[in-house]
Design a protein that fits this description.
The complex is a heterodimer. Chain A is an alpha+beta fold. Helix content of chain A is about 35%, strand content about 40%. The chains are: A alpha+beta, B alpha/beta. Chains A and B meet through strand 2, strand 3, helix 2, strand 4 and helix 3 of A and helix 1, helix 3 and helix 9 of B.
């Protein structure tokens, strides 16, 4: 398993989850968990995904998700899960 | 499983509070390059550095990208050149050719600094070491990325006062040689007591002779993160304040440990140490001074500053030690004046003086760092300041350092501009009473007694 955390932050609008999920499905990236909140009108989503099946390079997926975010008008970050696990778990 | 709040906290640290890994420094031993033929020596040095470090920058960038954590600098430290060049270099100019080779190698592999144009002379100097030290002003003037350091004292050996005297002169010469750039050469020269062998931070990085052939050392950072965290405990007691700093330092250091482990694995080079230092930058919100002010000082330099800094430094270490498998280097809070906006402001309004900075260095690494002084300051006065700082390190069994910049042609009240991470600094007044009779004595200050502590 290659766990990656995708975060989406930005102004709430129709179809953000749909667009991100479509991209992930097309690239064989499995979603393990989704959580989402709206804070002061801002959409805040986190997805835990598994990138073991995708044929694309890590770096390319990161860049393409960033690009997708620019198109929707939100900030999308994709990071390997270890940075969060290391910081918050013993 | 990781939750959204933890993810948001981490990303806020990165995007809003300047959390970064300050440097991945690849230590490369040059001991196997030693040759009595200068041309061969230079060729071997160039080849070894460009071979061992060829993937350093690209690997650093890949890690940065995948984990979403900025790695500000990728750097190289090498075995002190006074040792490597001793057999081949007959003159100071011979040593300068090595500096040029190092600069060329640094540019080829794309690192922004290479440290180790250094001499370790805490007890005595060989003729080669003296030649090497005398070559430093020219070496720093003709190169761009080479950093230099001289270790002139230690707790075990005392202080080599001949070297202290020489270093005062060398700092003046380095300032003169780069006077058209506000004496920038001096920003790349550090004088040490108890210099560590595994320091990843410039300008004082070198790879000691006790180290392996190649090793990855990582310096973490995050003053902005600490400041943000302690804003949440404003007005609370010291217990809560200290706990908050420790927890934050732990989190910051874990990121450094992760990056160090990844870099080590990908480059196939063993992991050495994490340096726990809090390192500021001139960016707003990335300042040690602002942390001290958040703790409760109107301006850095006010009474209470030394105590606040001692506490901060200790809590950072306590939090960081558990987060990393190996800790080393300098591991303390840096207080470089020109690289910290809060320090610059405190000097400008007169809250922070050279004497208070000296007191602060008793409780934190790394010493009198990036302090611009009047260009007219005498070499012996600079040596006197060095001797004072070395004495603090020697007696307290800690690393101390001096990186002073006598800005040629400028005086108190004017500003020296260094650019980039080196920042800018208001020129600070120096006590002008003479100490030349003290500095001109020959020999060394004996090692201090290690008992009867008081």
């Amino acid at each position: 398993m290659k766990k990656c955390i995708i975060t989406v932050v930005g102004k709430d609008t129709v179809g953000i989850i749909a667009k991100v999920c479509t991209y992930l499905a097309e690239n064989k990236i499995n979603i393990l968990d989704i959580s989402q909140t709206i804070v002061q009108g801002y959409f805040n989503m986190m997805m835990i995904t598994d990138m073991a099946q995708t044929e694309k390079e890590f770096g390319d997926v990161f860049d393409e998700l960033e690009q997708l975010g620019n198109e929707i008008g939100v900030t999308i970050r994709c990071q390997r899960a270890e940075i969060f696990e290391k910081m918050h778990r013993l | 499983m990781i939750n959204i709040y933890e993810v948001t906290e981490t990303n806020q640290m990165i995007t809003q509070e300047n959390l970064d890994v300050r440097t991945i420094t690849l230590g490369i031993s040059l001991l196997d390059c030693i040759d009595s033929d200068l041309n061969k020596l230079n060729e071997k040095i160039y080849n070894k550095i460009t071979t061992v470090a060829k993937d350093l920058v690209s690997t650093g960038q890949a890690i940065e990208h995948e984990f979403g954590i900025p790695i500000v600098n990728k750097r190289i430290s090498i075995t002190p050149i006074s040792i490597i060049g001793a057999a081949a270099c007959k003159t100071s100019d011979d040593f300068v050719t090595i500096a040029e080779t190092l600069d060329r190698a640094a540019k080829t592999v794309g690192v922004n600094f290479i440290g180790g144009y250094s001499a370790l002379v805490s007890k005595g100097m060989t003729p080669a070491e003296e030649n090497m030290i005398r070559s430093i002003p020219k070496a720093l003037a003709v190169t761009e990325r080479v950093c230099s350091s001289v270790n002139v004292g230690s707790t075990k050996t005392g202080i080599n006062m001949d070297a202290v005297k020489l270093c005062g002169e060398i700092i003046k010469e380095a300032a003169e040689a780069t006077k058209e750039r506000d004496s920038l050469g001096c920003a790349k020269l550090v004088i040490f007591c108890n210099a560590p062998d595994d320091n990843p931070f410039m300008a004082g990085a070198f790879l000691g002779v006790t180290e392996a052939d190649a090793v990855i050392n990582v310096g973490v950072s995050g003053p902005g993160v600490v400041k943000h965290a302690i804003e949440q405990v404003r007005g609370k007691g010291f217990e809560e304040l200290c706990e908050t700093i420790k927890k934050t330092a732990f989190k910051i250091t874990r990121v450094g440990q992760l990056v160090a482990g990844e870099a080590s694995k990908r480059l196939g080079i063993p992991f050495g140490i994490i340096d726990l230092s809090l390192a500021p930058t001139p960016a707003i919100g990335d300042s040690i001074a602002e942390i001290l002010e958040e703790i409760g000082l109107e301006k850095v330099g006010a009474p209470g500053t030394t105590a606040a800094l001692a506490m901060l430094n200790d809590q950072v270490k306590k939090g960081g030690v558990m987060a990393s498998s190996y800790v080393g280097g300098l591991s303390g809070a840096f207080i470089p004046v020109s690289e910290d906006q809060g320090m610059i402001d405190a000097v400008t309004v007169g809250a922070l003086t050279l004497e208070k900075l000296e007191a602060m260095t008793c409780v934190c690494s790394v010493g009198l760092d990036m302090i611009a002084i009047p260009g007219k300051t005498k070499a012996t006065t600079i040596s006197g300041i060095i001797a004072d700082e070395m004495a603090i390190g020697m007696v307290n069994q800690k690393t101390t350092a001096v990186r002073l910049i006598p800005v040629i042609g400028k005086d108190v009240g004017e500003i020296a501009e260094f650019g980039g991470l080196l920042g800018y600094a208001p020129i600070i007044p120096v006590n002008e009473f003479d100490c030349s009779a003290f500095i001109n004595r020959k020999g060394r200050i004996p090692a201090p007694i290690h008992s009867f502590k008081n």
